[in-house]
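Researcher: Go.
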Amino acid sequence: MNIKRKIILFNLLIFLLLLEVLVPYVLKEYNIMTLSRYTIIRQDNFKLPSSETEFAFSEEYKNNFIWLIKLDFQNLRITNHDIENAIKIREHLLNLSERGEGNYLVTRYPDEIYKHLKSNKPLLCGELAKLYGYILHLYGFKVRYITVARSLFDSFDRHSTIEIWDERRGKWIISDPTFNISLICDTIFLSSDELYDLIHAGNFNLIKAVHGKHSKYETPIEHYYISYYSLFDNIYYIRKIEPFSLKELPPIRWLMNDYKIFLVQTFEFPVRGSGIKIQNSIMFFILFLNPILIILISFYLVFSIFGFQFQLQKIFVTKFYTKPALIKIYRYLKK
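Model: Structure:
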């Protein structure tokens, strides 16, 4: 391969690497989009108990976490897996500390979130939902980690919360730890998709927020910077929360179902697919195509450089070392 072609490929590689680093940074810094692949889940499938979020932490991690929270939860007894007991756990959790000032924590690990909460530091809705969801999971609840958002392309105007599978009622029900609320319509506890349909039908007056007992850590929903209901333009959930692994990195991330985001499609008010197509087209380039190009070009350059050097070394050894060695052997045998 000539020098000119090497230079062109090397410059292209540098450009693609910068693109792979800078684009995710800009998207995250300015709250634009999510670095994930979206897919549709129909409302009838979303209503099934199997549409839950798996907390795939190891048995050792689970035991260590139970030991961590043991003193705080040892007197809390749960009799059934229903919304009333989920609220009981929520209220207990939100009274373990008082929400204060400080830096927010961004992590997926419940033990780190729990320690942050216990130190009276504030948590974002996503981290608080993960902690609450994991504790519910340890108590035997089926849990679903969901996010509601005004737009797929705006990662700021969104809110993450928890739904639990109520075994007595046979349905999913919202239990929001950030605001310490559940939602009802005519005394019936609502799931996120039911709330979505009511909002889009214009039936705001039928929805009522049921507050849990006042707690020290909750955020009053009246003080929220935006209307809670206005966020219900899109509902999606993830199937797995787990420790970091290399398969999360591109291009493998694009291929894994565990890292897809499932956007709910209700029958009455379906979400049109143009936003998903744009999002997935951009993510296909960032999470799959661009990394594949980087890998191929890198391998090609490495092989061309080191392969060429190996060939030179082989020629040098053959021409300049082999013949003198044979001459020495010949002379030795001749004696």
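Model: The chain has a mean pLDDT of 89.
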